[in-house]
């Protein structure tokens, strides 16, 4: 049959290029092991098994981009067995050994048109799954951004609290100051800013689920007089704030909109104020997404219209928006570790996660979190915290040395 010849040719080509700990099992019981390369036997034993229940699913395998493999798994076209880290590594190896790094499956830069309606829709798609869904695998404070492992051995709860303190210490937050948190999530940062640092806070989000729970948490903490949570687009915020934070939000802004995004932050910032942008960046200097179709999968299933700029673009557009950069820190390793813990938590609560959402959503996040850990580990993506203030104004509230960031921990 035609498919048999095509499949055999594909198997032979993969085997010629690399020995993989992979076994492919077809609907008719036929199986292929990929443990030899260049005709040489290897001691590599199968750690991952892909089961193909129907011939129609072979089309996903014959062009094994991360987008195709991910879609086949998410939509139930194939079943995959093995430890999650090995599954992701084998999937990437299939793509890397079969696809050309340039062209369609390379680090393509995609630009999307962003407006308030589309951005709100994208946020609702990702965040308004279910608060219970996120509670099952995030830390107890529900912080959905890169943690800070000061020593590398902290548990997730500790590392997320350290991340918030790291941010609030970096911006030198003082009692009585006003703080705007753009993309406030479920309120963890503004709660900490009010409780520990004595700030008066406004948190904005486009997620109705986040808004409802954040307001509830603020009320339960007895901090309604210090914290206001708004269901509001950052572009509609007015006023002046001593401090501004944006954590895990600017990925939704759009590369073309970054100068306007940063200029609006400048407009909201007091003359001697300090702001911080904490966000994911690509490591491709041309603003390309994750290679081998990984970015395509994320766009389709996880973050519609998300765009990652290179750090050089972040610094350039900050300057264009009227902000001077004061401090830059790369937390790439920290996000690899964070995503790995999230992936483990998701798997540990698999049945509860499926009940809180559904099997398809579980499969999407299983691939996404483990794949993100893999991408951060291999420097496909990074996470930068950038502290800045208004250009042309003296940052009188900032110490001369960076020592203050660490002395107060």
TrEMBL record:
Q: Which UniProt keywords apply?
A: Lipid metabolism, Methyltransferase, S-adenosyl-L-methionine, Transferase
Task: Please give the Gene Ontology molecular function terms for this protein.
Answer: methyltransferase activity
What is the similarity comment for this entry? Belongs to the CFA/CMAS family.
Q: What is this protein called?
A: Methyltransferase domain-containing protein
- Where the record annotates domain DUF7884, the positions are 14-97
State whether keyword Acyltransferase applies. Answer: no
Q: Which PANTHER family match?
A: CYCLOPROPANE-FATTY-ACYL-PHOSPHOLIPID SYNTHASE (PTHR43667)
Q: Per the UniProt entry, what are the Gene Ontology biological process annotations, in alphabetical order?
A: lipid biosynthetic process; methylation
Among SUPFAM superfamilies, the record links this protein to: S-adenosyl-L-methionine-dependent methyltransferases (SSF53335)
Coiled-coil annotated spans: none
**What organism does the record attribute this protein to?**
Glaciimonas soli
């Amino acid at each position: 049959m035609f498919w048999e010849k095509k499949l055999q040719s594909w198997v032979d080509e993969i085997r010629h290029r690399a020995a993989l700990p992979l076994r492919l099992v077809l609907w008719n019981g036929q199986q292929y092991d990929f443990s030899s390369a260049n005709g040489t036997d290897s001691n590599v034993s199968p750690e991952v098994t892909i089961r193909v229940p129907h011939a129609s699913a072979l089309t996903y395998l014959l062009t094994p981009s991360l987008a195709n493999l991910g879609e086949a798994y998410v939509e139930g076209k194939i079943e995959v067995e093995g430890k999650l880290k090995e599954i992701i590594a084998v999937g990437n190896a299939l793509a890397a050994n079969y696809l050309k790094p340039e062209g369609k499956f390379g680090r393509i830069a995609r630009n999307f048109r962003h407006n308030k309606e589309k951005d709100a829709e994208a946020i609702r798609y990702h965040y308004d799954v279910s608060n219970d869904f996120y509670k099952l695998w995030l830390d107890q404070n529900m912080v959905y951004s890169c943690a800070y492992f000061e020593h590398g051995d902290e548990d997730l709860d500790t590392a997320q609290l350290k991340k918030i303190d790291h941010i609030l210490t970096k911006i030198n937050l003082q009692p009585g100051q006003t703080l705007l948190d753009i993309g406030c999530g479920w309120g963890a940062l503004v709660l900490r800013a009010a409780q520990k640092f004595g700030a008066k806070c406004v948190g904005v989000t486009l997620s109705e689920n986040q808004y409802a729970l954040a307001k509830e948490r603020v009320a339960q903490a007895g901090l309604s007089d210090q914290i206001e949570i708004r269901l509001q687009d950052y572009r509609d915020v007015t006023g002046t704030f001593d401090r501004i934070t944006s954590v895990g939000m600017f990925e939704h802004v759009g590369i073309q909109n970054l100068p306007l995004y940063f200029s609006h932050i400048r407009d909201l910032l007091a003359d001697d104020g300090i702001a911080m942008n904490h966000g994911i960046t690509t490591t491709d200097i041309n603003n390309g997404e994750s290679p081998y179709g990984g970015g395509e999968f994320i766009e389709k299933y996880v973050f519609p219209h998300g765009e990652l700029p290179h750090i050089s673009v972040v610094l350039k557009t900050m300057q264009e928006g009227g902000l001077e950069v004061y401090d830059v820190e790369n937390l790439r390793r920290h996000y690899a570790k964070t995503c790995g813990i999230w992936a483990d938590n998701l798997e540990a609560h698999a049945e509860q996660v499926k009940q809180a959402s559904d099997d398809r959503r579980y499969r999407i996040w299983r691939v996404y979190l483990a794949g993100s850990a893999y991408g951060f580990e291999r420097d496909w993506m990074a996470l930068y915290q950038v502290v800045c203030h208004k250009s042309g104004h003296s940052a009188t509230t900032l110490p001369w040395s960076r020592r203050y960031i660490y002395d107060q921990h």
